[in-house]
Each structure stands twice: as C-alpha cells, then as structure tokens.
Amino acid sequence: MEHGMWKELGSDFETAYAKIPEALAAEGFGIITQIDMQATVRAKIGEEMLPYRIIGACNPKLAHQAVQHDPRIGVLLPCNVVLYQREDGKAVLGAIDPMQSLGAQGGALGEVAQMVKGKLERFMASMS
Length: 128
Fold this sequence. Notes:
Blueprint: E1 5-12, H1 13-25, E2 30-36, H2 37-45, E3 52-58, H3 60-69, E4 79-85, E5 90-95, H4 98-101, H5 107-126
Antiparallel strand pairs: 1-5, 2-3, 3-4, 4-5
C-alpha cells in the first residue's frame, strides 16, 4: 500500500523547502508544526541522516468542518506534508492522502476528505 501521495522534485531540498509555505498558503493551508527529523535524530540518538522535514499543514475551515462532523477526527489532524532529500541530492515531496484516512469514514467526512485531497494535489503540482 502506498502511504500518501508522492512526487519526486527536480530541485534540491533547500530550494523545495523554501517554496512550501507559499504553495500551501495558495490552497488555504498554514503551517502549524514542523519536525526537523535530521536535527532530532542527531540530538536524540547521535545518528546522521539526510534532510527530512515533517510539516503539519492546516486548512482551518476544512479542519473545523471535519471536527464538527466527528470530534475524534482530530487524531488525523493536521495534514502532514513530508520533504526529504535522496542520496542523489534531489528532493521528494509527500502528503497525506486524506481519502485513506478521513475518506474512509464516508458521508460528510468523505466529502471534506475529497476537498482536502484536491487542495493537496494542487499544492503538490505547484511544487514542480
């Protein structure tokens, strides 16, 4: 099973990382959390790894809509976006596929998931 939606970028990690906030904002998302896995792994276990960021993105209107339908849906929020660097220096971008999580609920939550997925797909396409 493919976890999320993925795209290999033609740029390096730093160039791609710099574009993410504006590209997410264009689809109504803000960044509410960030985890620098490279720095965390180095600090916590003394191991080295290539750049890897987990970015928690939130579209407040759609998140509110989802939570109104089911308050327990918060365990699936925010929408995670991942950017990492491959050995060859190229960046890889990933995002949660809300149809694999929210969409599985069907009904109104499925409709919200479809809207979120469309926004995340457009975000990813803009990162070319």
